[in-house]
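Morning. Coffee machine broken again, so started the prediction first thing and wrote up yesterday's gels while waiting. Chain of 416 residues, entered below exactly as on the submission form.
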Amino acid sequence: MSVIATVTLVAGNLGLIFLLMTAPLGLRTVSVNRVIKAERNRLWQALWPLASDAGWSGEILSTEPLDGEGMALIKLSWEGRDGRPIERKARFDDVVEGSRFSMRVIEDTALDPSFWTDYRETTELAPEGGATRVTLTQTDRYRGVAFLIFRYFAMRRELAKLQVWARTGKYRKGGWFEHPVSQIGFAVLSAFILWPFFGLNPGGLALAAILTSVVALHELGHMAAFRLTGHRRARMIFIPLLGGIAIGGRPYDSRFEVAFVALMGAGFSAFLVPVLIAASGFAGSAGHHLAAALLATLAGCAALFNIANLVPVWKFDGGQVLRQICPEPLALALASFLLLSALLALGWRAGFSPSFLLVAGAVFSMLSLLTVGSGVKPRHELKPIRAFDRLAMAGALLAVFSIHGYGVLWAAAQLM
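Came back before lunch.
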């Protein structure tokens, strides 16, 4: 990859990360509407949380009025960190029976109350011929457009599913976006987007496909960790150009869980890299040089990608692991310095130029600044990590770093 292509790819990713996660947008209102062929009263029974059909989508399990002034306790089907349904205390106002209502969330059992400070949603129903126009509006304060875009499409999906429910009386789960076929399509699209950066030739396409496969294997490691820590549902979503993300089925419960899930992305590939290195050697000795080269490239890409994820940046896997096993600021600063120094030394030993490593260090620092504090604060502090678990995770981090570091050095030697 040329210097210009590298700078373009890195700068583009930094800009996208800032726009998606950090750019201050202030108070924003998102509104969607749809005309649904159903009586207004029937739709009101589904959308008003205290009505008879409020559980039409399976999201609301029950709603209990708390006073005569619009306060209610809503039990949701979403799992909390303890595996039990999340409970949300909300206040309803501007209620016009059969026509409109507004809701503010006071608190819930999953998130810190500050998350809901500026949030407000409104539902309106208006007759239109023999149908009903349903309008959903949400107002909140946003940093980055990612969550705003998510809410927009979530509201569109809710209205589409409401339309199906009104017609059939049944709720259709899922959607096209998270369907496995769609995700495979996004992965293929991601590979084609990366292709020009590696050269518009068969070799460049192979590198783009290998990098996409490496991302998928990394996220599979996170998904496996989610399942092992008790998440009954976990899924992976591909985001073209930016890569992929694994999503658990409930909030984290403990610091150990955060560290384990974060490390297993690289940890899963740490089992594969030695196998790929051995397979490349066997293929080469048997005279299958193309297969040997492809296996070596896959091993090198996997090692480089995963060790890069161990950089002590706020949202990277390495940063998340270190924050859990080193909660004290001084210990965290020292561990971050040692890990970053080891990564830079490894890069120098692998043949990267000092100027490239200097730029890489600056990029990682910018990433850390862009993403610091971008997480959502939970309602209650995570369970502390035990001393034994802290030592076990530190040892696992060292082992994963060593395996991938060897893979980087081995791959660099093959290219010489």
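The radius of gyration is 25 Å. Going to sketch it on the whiteboard this afternoon.
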